[in-house]
Structures are given as C-alpha cells and as structure tokens.
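In the previous chapter we treated chains in isolation. Here, by contrast, the input contains three separate entities that must be folded as one system, with a combined length of 846 residues.
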Amino acid sequence: MSSSTPFQTNSKVVKWIESRLPIISTIDGALVSYPAPRNLNYWWNFGSLAGFMLVAQIVTGIILVMHYTPHVTLAFASVEHIMRDVNYGWLIRYAHANGASMFFIVVYIHIIRGLYYGSYKAPRELLWWLGIVIFLLMMATAFMGYVLPWGQMSFWGATVITNLFGAVPYVGGDIVTLLWGGFSVDNPTLNRFFSLHYLLPFLIVAVVFLHLWALHTSKSNNPLGIDIKGDQDTVPFHPYYTAKDAFGLCVFLMFFAYWVFFNPNYLGHPDNYIEANPLVTPAHIVPEWYFLPFYAILRAVPDKLGGVLAMGGAIVILFFLPYLDFSKVRSAKFRPVYKMAFWIFVVNGVILGYIGAMPAEGIYITVGRIASIYYFAHFFIIVPLIAWYEKPLPVPESIAKAVLGNDAKA
Amino acid sequence: MATSSSAGHEEHGSGQATRRDFLIVATCGLGAVAAGATVWPLIDQMNPAADVLALSSTEVDLSPIAEGQGITVMWRGKPVFIRHRTAKEIEEAEAVPLSELRDPQTDAQRVKEGKKQWLIMVGICTHLGCVPLGQQGDYDGWFCPCHGSHYDSSGRIRKGPAPLNLAIPEYQFLSDTKIKIG
Amino acid sequence: MRAMKIGAAALLALGLGAGAAAASEAVHIEKQDWSFNGAFGTFDRASLQRGYQVYKEVCASCHSMKFISFRNLRDIGFSEAEVKALAAQYEYPALDDTGEATTRKGTPADRFHAPFANELAARASNGGALPPDLSLIAKARVGGPDYIYALLTGYHEVPAGFTLNAGMNYNAAFPGHQIAMAKPLNDDQVTFADGTKATTAQMAHDVATFLMWTAEPKLEDRKRAGVKVMGFLAILTIFSFLTYRRVRKKVQGH
C-alpha cells in the first residue's frame, strides 16, 4: 500500500539504541514519516489538541496535588491556599479547571468530525470504540475531579450522580453504600475519588496509545472519505502536519488563554465557591457544561432506572454506529441527506445541553423529552434509513486526482 | 490564497532558502521561549508559598530573660537558643585562642556589637542534627548527648565529632529588648 | 461555510448558557462600573482601603473573612507597620507556660479575626440566620460585585401586596426578596480616612470592590499576565502560520 520510507540513520548512537529497542524508528514512523493524506483539513487538528490537553491536565494536576489536601475539613481551604499563597497557584488551578472544559470542547469537535466524515466505518471500528472508551474515562475523571474542591456543587453533584446507582434493582442500595464508603457522600468518598481521579488519566494514556496504534494501522481518514491508493495520495507527517498542528496549537492556546486569564469562572458555577454543606441543597444542581446533554437525557425519563439506562444508552449506542450506518460512502461531502441529518443532530445536541442547564419544569421538560427521543431516533431510525435509501454523490477516483487536479477545497 | 509575491513553485535560490530558514528558526525560537515561560511557573510553585514565607521570621521579646537565663524558641521549624550570658561566660569565650578551635571564630563574630551578652544560635548539633543540652559539658556551654559533642559559652565546637560551631541565624535588634530572627 | 455553521452552533450554545443563568434568577442586576473590569482592569487602591474600612467597622461584627490574613493588606497599600498595628488590635487563643488557655496579640501572619467562635454562636446572635463568610462572596454569587452592590443598595419599601415574613427585610436584589440581614449601610455611617463622603452608594461601591479583591487577590496579576501571554501568542501564531504556509507551498503549490 502506501509505504513510509524505512527508517535510516548514520548515527552510531541511534543504531546502538535501535538494535536494542527500536523506539526511534517507532517514533519516526508515527510522527515523521507517517503517511498522512495530503488533503486533511483543519478538523483533523483536534486529535493532536486532545493529546496536548491530556498532557496539560496531567502536568497541572500533579502539581496541584502537591498542595491539595483530600480531607473534607481541609479540601476547600487547601484550594484557596493554592489560589492565594502558592506561587502561580492561581494560574495552575485555573489552567486545570478550564483545561477540563478545553479538553471536552476539543474532544467533542474531534468526535463530531468523525461523525461527519465517517471515520467510524470499516476498517476503523476499533479505533472508534477505543475513542468511546477514552470519552467514558474522561467523563469519570472529570466527574471525580469536580468533587475534589468540596464546594456545594462538588458535594451535591456527587450526591445526585452516586444516588443514580441506587436505581439498579435489588442491589442498588448496596452499590451506593459501597461507592460512598458510608451512608452519604463524605470523607471516604472524597478520598477514593481523589485516588481514582489521579489514576484514571494514566489509564486514558494507555487507551490513547492503543487508539493511536489502531490509527496508524488503518491510516487516517480524510475529508473525501476515500482510501489512500498510493504514495501520491499522502505526504509525510513531518513537516506538513507538524507545522499545521503547531499552528493549530497556537490558535487553540489563544482560545485557552482567554478563558484562563480573562474569564476563568464563566464555565464554572458560583455555588462551588461555597463550602459543601450537607444540610443546604443549592436551588439548581447543575453539572459542568460538558455533561449537560446527558443530564438532560437522564431527567427526560420520569422513571429513575429508565433515566439511568437512557443516559448510559446514549453513549453505548455510539458503539453500534459502524453497523447502524452501513452506507459504503464515508464522507458526508458526498451524502447530502446524511449531511442534513448530521446538522440536525448537532443542533439537537446543543438543545439537549441547554435543557440540561434549565430547571426540570414546564416547557423545558417537553422540549427535553422531544430532544432525547430525537437523539435515539437519529441513531436507530434516521441513520439506517438514510444508509438504505440515500443515493450518494459520485466519489472522486483518488485523493491525488481531487487535490492536485482541481481546486482542492475539501 | 496564492498571493505569492514569489513564484508558487519551488526555487532553490539562496534568497529563498535564507528566508525560509529565518522563518523556521524564528518560529522555533519563539516556541522555545513559550515553552520556557510555561515551565517556570511549574517549577516556581514548589518554592515556599506566601503563608510559609510569612512565618519565616519571628520576633522575640528579650525582657523576660534574666542574666544567666536562656530560652528556646521555634523558628522555621527549628529550635533557636537565646541566652542572656553572664560576664564570666563572655570573658571565657573571648579568652579562647583561635588555634584551639576546630571551626575558628572569635566570640565577637558570633554576637552583635554592643549586645554581646545575647547569644542567639540554631540549636541543632552540626554533627548529625540532635538538639544539644544547655549548661552542660566541659566548656561551660552545651553538650550533645547523641555522640558527645561539647560546645563552649560561645557555642563553638571544642570536643567531640561535630565539625562546625552552632549556626548563628540571621537576626537583628528591633530595640534593646526585641529581636527579629529571619 | 461549515466552519461558520459550527461557529454559529458554538455561539448559540454559549449564548443559551449565559441566558440560562440569568433567566433562572429572574432578578435584573444592574451592571456597575468597576475599575477592575476589562482586560486591563486594576483595583482602585483608595477604594480598596475605604472598602476595608467599611468591612472592619460595619460588616466584621457579624461576617467572618477567614481566607484573608493581615499580611494580605500590604497588597492594598498598607505599610508593614500599619499591618502589624491592625493585627495587634485583635486577640487570638494561645497557651501559657502551664498549658492553660490564654490569649496573644495578633500578628500579620494571622487570619482575620472571626466575630463568632463557631456556627452555633453566629446563628444564636443573628436570629437563627448564619452570616456567610465574606472572603469569596464576590465569586460565590451570580452577578458578583454587581449583585453585592445591588443588595446593599436594594433595601426599599415593601411593595404593595408583598407579604414580608416576621423578622425579615425586603430587598430588591436578594432572591425571593426577603433577607434576614437588616439594612447594614446608612449615609455617613463611616468616616472615611481619606475624606470621601460616605454615602450608602459610595460605601456599597467601595466594599464591593474590596470584596472582589478578597475573593480574587490575584486578579491584577492574572490580567497582566494574560495581556502578555495573548500578545506573545498572537505573534507566535502569526509566525507559525507563515511557517506552515511556506511548508504547504511545497505540497499544494500555493
């Protein structure tokens, strides 16, 4: 197929290392000579941005742990100690808190890119599934991390979400007691969330490694959705996409810097600057914005167990997408009907997010139910129907023809 | 997009290469500056925080300490001996020839001018860190029970395994009866 | 075109989010002019010192401020000697040589003195209500300093048809409009050291500024750093784009 030039070196040192552990040729194959389609657009920058955010969160997180105390009487004060007394503590804390939001923004765009261009289709099903696993681990990590400052939202968010497990028939109550380590969210809960919040990111690193390995096996998708047919369809990753990723990183860093330096609390909730109080429930318990669509689906079902199953189902259904969407054409560029359904799905997702932030009253309940039903209808009904009936536009012969022949705006 | 002032296709003229090199060098250079500027806060955060620095100095009122008396105060987590020396102790300390000392220091070097009745030292044996006991030992000073170091009435090592005199912390007299250590 | 669509979706989401926050409270909070607003905002030191005076003379009798130490007051313009003197006005628990409880004078390293020993004592002295700690109040309420100003200047006559519960006071800004705290600020209640006339509005403005500082003492550092970072990143972005474009020329010829 497309062959990357086999790694060659004149350096004695490199040869010495290579014969014992071929790490340099591996990195070369992944980041230097890796054959990437020559027509990738900016929607392909978000994978590297996600990798950057994973590292950023780990680095800022490890530093925060040097100053944080995971005990109910001291946690809140230790975060204020970081904000006020630790050198640059305010910067590291705001970078970590806003970094979580950035990580989700980047990953959501990365996922939506996959939905549009059919990156979940054969031969990339495993790549897609590993991505969903990363997403689930991110959600667990973010949820537990938000509990650590021990503010009102930390405590009550933890209470609401852990109580969900009580919906499991028969053993639900015992599961919740096991999760809590007691009879309510309290110090044992905080301590174990702290431990797991530190652990899970390293599991994410491991799954990201598998995710990249799977990617490098099937090679990257591209905006036309057609296979790489030869060397003329690709360019070496370095310098073309290293330069492009560096540029994308700079733009992204400006976005990130805006939040950290000029609006660090907008994406959070003021109630989390109030110390946790088990006797006072906030007027509106709201999770962080990146959970809102799933929170809306949870609340849309009047039954507790039903809501939990719907929320879980909303993510599990993603695993089946490669089979629900069995169209042979990958990219929505050539699938006008699917393209429309895609945009409606995205807007529906935004609506779900908005509903998640609203109190569960009046018209919000109705809209939330419609939007939740639509979410599942998109996967179960709309997508398969489109795959069956849609007549896609003709797909170009090859990437090289499309790019080098005419104007290559993909 | 092709606003090229130069031709769109490759040219291997030296002018082209120089401009490209400058651009890449400049970009990488700026990137390195960015990386460095990012790394500094990540390291500086390990330096003492503001609340630790606030406790880095301690004021002590000397008026309750009578002549021939001493107290121990905590400073930066360590014991500090504050002794109001008698005239005899001062005389003894000043009379010792430097050649007899393992760590030669005159008594004057270890006290403040005009205030030599006040001996202020970090009470940690310079051998392996135990706290010496006051008014004991063969030299009218301190004795460390851990390994038998003897310090004189100026806190200087005279006998035993300790290599250095008891450390004198940074301090200043705010008034005749008040000092600030650190 | 697609980028515009996605951008529109993002803005929609953000706008809805902001709208959501305001809608749920349903009380309109007037925006004030704060010296610390904007990318280049800084704290007005004179206002901070007047605000501290208001806190000390009016609010501190009921409201603790446990995350501020006297040494922090150096940042709003007090000298080391002034800070020492302020701290020494308060007594803190200590042990004497026999282990008996006694008190010692405050030092700059001490936190602000709390008016009540514990929550129960605070509630007992305030008709069952707990005066919240004010260290973070400017970040812990929707509307921040605007809300604090609106609250302090929002004690109006009870409107017709409104039932006020016993022991409560009407306030236009407080959610539910019934607040346990009686009107804390009245004209000329405080004599400002710098001679500024102490109207209710002035005191409210100054104390709200002070409370923004107590909530976020590093605000100025943050914004100053932000300007530098953004400026540098803008230059780096331009350079990295030019580099990318030069590299791209080789691929696509443009």
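The mean pLDDT of chain A is 95. The radius of gyration of chain A is 23 Å. Compare these points with the single-chain example from earlier in the chapter.
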